[in-house]
Write a structure and sequence with these properties.
The protein has 57 residues and is an alpha+beta fold. The protein is built from three helices and two strands, in the order αβαβα. It has a single domain, classed as Rossmann fold, CATH 3.40.50. Helix 2 (30-41) links the parallel strand 1 and strand 2.
Amino acid sequence: MPGVTAWYGLNRIIEPKPGETVAVSAASGAVGSVVGQLAKAAGCRVIGIAGGADKCR
């Protein structure tokens, strides 16, 4: 279900265009990590936000 949630939120609600920047909060979580990957694959610049240095690595 995290993949479906990520896909739907990105493609049906946000609808980013290639070249746009997508900021993902909770990027180390199940849904956030997939959103980041999908946005990157769609040609977007992705900024991931996570709880600390360990999670950002």
